[in-house]
Design a protein that fits this description.
globular, 3-stranded antiparallel sheet
């Protein structure tokens, strides 16, 4: 296996193939496995970046589609990129915006050249193809940028999934051609194919043959059941190079993260921590907590006994229940702090267990704790 200075593997788990490593970027090193919180519009909802850092996040996501529309490329360019505009000094990954564009049912038209779509707020018409996606992300200036892809929602027919996969491959070639900042922005390719093994294998072989710095499994958690998510994750991961970072897009429950790590995945993202917080819910070792429930009205315990986040060190479930019931905006902040910290910590604990040889025991513990308690959070449920 050739040495890769961009991504280094420090330890692997012989039982599962899980690995710990590090990704070097212009804005710092990301230790993997790593959960990446979503800052869709250049911010995490209800949080300051100091709070995000305190949660242990090493890298955040921005969304090209949303940032392109507002504040717009001229504003971001004027400030020298998203890092400086938002005053976030650590690494950033940008989604190409493909899923957001394709989720605009009735507001977009897909062709082999790209997508014509209407701004979901103003109604103004825009076009994004591979060239435009690379231009947008080059200006935003993220450390890791994603190729423009065609993501179909599930259930999808084999014919629909095949057409989207082939379009994704064509667009990847365009993204490689038009990517102008190859020295300081790592381009990751995206593997599509819905729930079909033959398509996933074809896509993995095509995308990895492009010899990019990293690879992502896309098109999961878009309407399918957990069993299908797990199957496609495990199946596709087998075709990804060992010496490149592996990223699965859009998963964000404790079990989903632990399972993906077991399959050898290094990076994960989801809006779930802040989205659930805005709905009064929190992750915990005993399962997801709905703080609006009256059973928490006199509960003096923290959200999770083992959590060391600001919220758990300072506030009881009863107090958080009170804030949720009166719809106080502070509830979103405090629950977001906890939820982000919880998922970041899951990944960090898995990393440490891989390093010290105890990952199998930790995974089995997580299986008992979370597998039956946590339903998957799909992208079709996201509203961030």
């Amino acid at each position: 296996m050739a040495e890769n200075k961009y991504f280094r593997i420090q330890a692997t788990c012989p039982w599962s193939g899980a690995r710990s490593g590090s990704i070097s970027t212009p804005h710092g090193t990301v230790e993997t496995p790593a959960f990446m919180p979503c800052g869709t519009n250049g911010t995490l909802k209800a949080l300051t970046f100091d709070q995000v850092k305190d949660c242990g996040a090493q890298i955040i996501l921005g969304n090209s589609y949303h940032l392109y529309l507002r504040p717009g490329l001229e504003v971001i360019k004027q400030f020298g990129g998203l890092h400086k505009f938002a005053n976030w000094p650590k690494p950033i990954l940008t989604d190409s915006g493909g899923f957001q564009v394709f989720s605009l049912d009735g507001l977009r038209k897909i062709t082999d050249e790209g997508v014509v779509f209407k701004d979901h707020i103003s109604g103004q018409e825009h076009f994004i193809g591979p060239k435009e996606s690379m231009h947008i992300q080059n200006i935003i200036g993220a450390d890791i940028i994603m190729a423009f892809d065609d993501c179909v929602k599930n259930p999808a027919t084999h014919e629909q999934a095949k057409a989207a996969m082939e379009r994704t491959h064509k667009w990847l070639a365009g993204c490689i051609e038009y990517h102008k900042r190859k020295d300081d922005q790592a381009l990751f390719g995206i593997i599509q194919g819905s729930t079909y093994e033959d398509l996933r294998e074809i896509s993995a072989n095509y995308v990895t043959n492009c010899d990019l710095l990293g690879y992502a499994i896309g098109g999961v958690a878009v309407g399918e059941e957990r069993q299908a998510i797990e199957h496609i994750t495990a199946f596709t991961a087998k075709f990804l190079p060992e010496n490149k970072p592996r990223y699965i897009m859009g998963i964000g429950t404790p079990w989903d993260i632990a399972y993906a790590i077991k399959c050898g995945i290094d990076m994960f993202d989801c809006v779930s921590p802040t989205r659930l917080a805005r709905h009064g819910a929190a992750f915990a070792s005993e399962g997801r907590l709905a703080l609006k429930s009256s059973r928490f009205a006199l509960d003096a315990k923290p959200l999770d006994a083992d959590c060391t986040c600001y919220t758990c060190k300072n506030h009881s479930r009863a107090y958080l229940h009170h804030l949720v019931r009166i719809k106080e905006m502070t509830a979103s902040t405090l629950l977001s702090i906890h939820n982000i910290n919880f998922l970041v910590t899951i990944a960090k604990k898995c990393r440490q267990a891989i390093m010290d040889g105890s990952f199998r025991q930790l995974f089995e513990q997580y299986s008992l704790q979370y597998k039956e308690q946590e339903s998957p959070i799909t992208k079709t449920q996201e509203n961030d």
